[in-house]
Input
Amino acid sequence: MTHTLHRAGQPESLKDDFVVFAMSAKMVNAEGSGEKMKRFIEIVERYRPINFGDMKTGNIYNITREEIYKDVQDTSIVHFVFADRKVVAKIIKDLEQARLGISVVISGLIDETDRICEQVGLQMHTVEYSGGIFGQIKHLPEQPILDIMTMCGHGMVAKRLVREMVKQVEAKKMTVAEAAMELAKPCQCGVFNTKRAEKLIEDMIGIRP
Amino acid sequence: MWIDPKTCIGCGKCVPYCPMDAILLHQKDKQTGQKPYAEIDQDECVECYTCLRAQVCPTESIREQQLQWPRIVRRSFSDPLYVHKGTGVPGRGTEEMKTNDVTGRFREGFIGIGLEFGRPGMGTRLSEPEKAIKKLLALGVELEPLNPLTQLIADKATGRLKFDIRSEKVLSAIVECIVPINKTPAVLAAIKELALEVKTVFSLDLICKVGSGKKIPLLEISEAAGLTLSSNGKVNLGLGRPLCQGN
Output
């Protein structure tokens, strides 16, 4: 599943949106890779991610870090979300030096990821682009809603929930941060960027400074 | 999923969490005295379990049901925690490019193509991706054998899916294939035609291995096909090795 592809939005908004994740290949190097995955977590979480999760157990807005770490298996896919390219560059450097042997993928602006790779002495191995949305696009929600809901590639963040959270913030029943956290909960994998969601909600209701 | 009408108090807290808008809220009926309650439209529900996991029901009235064939297909394509029996992994597709540095699945000279039906946010009946499968097979394209949708094909020559699953609704289903570069323009043209025929939406995934000198053949091919690629996407860093031990 290309669950971190197709994140909609303008480059200005997407430039602060990176997902770093790792996985083993089921039929090649999965056996015994759980310990490598735990090491991956230890390396990456030092950089204070915005979100963090494993599809099989949940994300930090639903369960604790300890539960995620404890339940890591050979076939786990653990994801971290960051906003700062400099931090991502440091992480890649650390991962390169750690030589874990499991696959590491970065989702973000591809040119930016390419620059980061160059900076740390790597070359991109394989790339995946979104070629757009086709078919009955007239039924899609308005762009800011789409920008938020597509941060969960499995489609678990409902458009109606985004509207409801915006309504709650406008009515001052929730803070922007609380609304973003509520939106992050259904996204089990932990790839939902709450900081970006906060900015998008603020834009929607015109409260950005 | 279903909501127990005996215990539901009709507060509506679960309603916005449904990605398919399948939870209906019935108001109090003054004539019959029926109290307000929420109900899940079984035809629209994709069994993604989001409503249950949201844990917002104050009376715990949202309930699981024992899913039988063919309804179980809804869950396998909609609940990311559900492990497909055929692939042995959760999610709706394969490892695709995520482990390409280890598997070598996408080699130079080939383009990976994925059509994610129902994404974003609309969902799809399985008869919609079937249209893509038929079109691709007619072009002589080989579909990804490990993909869970490929495993539901009843007729490998035509691409007809098992009859009893065609009307099942799912959150999304991916058609995956790998195409030689020289065949890619024809496949992309067919995909653009398909866009006019489907009753839902689909998102297009395009994958290629980065060549020497950082050459990305996909950029040229997409431009020639009139496609605008996203500025964001996924990059496999090439840090994976075939065996973990000793690396």
In short: The longest helix of chain A spans residues 85-98. Residues 137-205 of chain A form one domain.
